[in-house]
From TrEMBL:
Keywords: DNA integration, DNA recombination, DNA-binding. Signal peptide: none annotated. The keyword DNA-binding applies. This is Integrase. Belongs to the 'phage' integrase family. It comes from the Bacteria. Pfam families: Phage_int_M (PF22022), Phage_integrase (PF00589). Residues 73-255 form the Tyr recombinase domain. GO terms for molecular function: DNA binding. It comes from Marinomonas rhizomae. GO terms for biological process: DNA integration; DNA recombination.
Length: 282
């Protein structure tokens, strides 16, 4: 669909409206996820064109807010800066409850900072954390491929505090019923509900959508870098899958920027007094 529509145009002649018209055809057929992926591919292509002097701007970068989004309940996510700031502030308030364990609080914070699959958090082991390299080396839950999570300063701080509590066992986030098993499959979801967010607003898997959306639309990171950090199979222009270490320094910079951005949104939420959640006992 892309090539027949704009493939024969000169790169510098393609305008945002040309790309939007193409994407609207996908949206009208109710294939919203494909529309967003196509926009990502076009955005990456134009980014390369800009870097190599073939274009002066990236018309696909301006379309994030113009596209329709899916409202699937099972993938509920908070994806606007204001919503995410409120969520991060809610986690801080939730952590003050005497009934809440440090494991659950750390899992919430790391879910936000790492936006990885919940299985990758729940089954994370201490020996997979490489403090000297400031990264986690683990296995992606869906693809079974090796996977690296660069650690921001904030993530390292959370892990060091948690190490004082759970380092006697192999799991970073152990179950409250014993450190020989991981955190419950619903542990983070239960905490999200306890903070007052409904299942239509946010779920544990929603941290992935949260990260993907704001890294693209607010922080303007290239889609292929984001997708690689999501542990998706990403291929180069020749169809070859990137390995786990490719773009690692770019991903490391992105993960630190993301953690800083979450702190910024939380601070803005504090200034705006946006928290009105009714915290429940977990």
């Amino acid at each position: 669909m892309v090539f027949p529509t704009i493939g024969k145009h000169q790169v510098e002649s393609i305008k945002p409206i040309d790309i939007l018209d193409l994407l609207r055809k996908l949206e009208d057929n109710n294939i919203l996820e494909t529309a967003h992926k196509v926009r990502g591919y076009i955005k990456s292509t134009f980014q390369y064109a800009v870097l190599t002097g073939r274009a002066e701007s990236n018309p696909a970068s301006e379309l994030g807010g113009a596209m329709r989004t899916s409202k699937a309940k099972h993938l509920a996510a908070l994806t606007t800066p204001k919503e995410v700031g409120a969520l991060m502030l809610a986690i801080d308030y939730y952590s003050m409850s005497p009934a809440v364990t440090p494991v659950v609080v750390a899992a919430l914070k790391c879910s936000a900072m790492w936006f990885c699959r919940q299985k990758e958090i729940r089954f994370l082991e201490w020996d997979q954390i490489h403090w000297d390299k400031a990264q986690i080396e683990t296995i992606a839950a869906k693809t079974n491929a090796s996977f690296i999570i660069p650690l921001s300063r904030q993530a390292i701080e959370v892990l060091k505090e948690l190490h004082k509590v759970t380092s006697q066992g192999k799991y970073v986030f152990p179950s409250a019923r014993g450190d020989s098993r991981p955190l419950s499959e619903n542990g983070v979801n239960v905490a999200i509900r306890a903070m007052g967010f409904s299942k239509e607003q946010m779920c544990a898997h929603g941290f992935r959508s949260m990260g993907r959306t704001l890294l693209d639309e607010a922080l303007n990171y290239p889609p292929h870098i984001i997708e690689q950090q999501l542990a998706h199979v990403v291929r180069d222009p020749l169809g070859r899958a990137y390995n786990r270490t490719q773009h690692l320094e770019q991903r490391r910079e992105m993960m630190q920027h993301w953690a800083d951005y979450l702190d910024k949104l939380k601070h803005e939420a504090t200034q705006g007094n946006v928290i009105s959640a009714n915290f429940k006992q977990a």
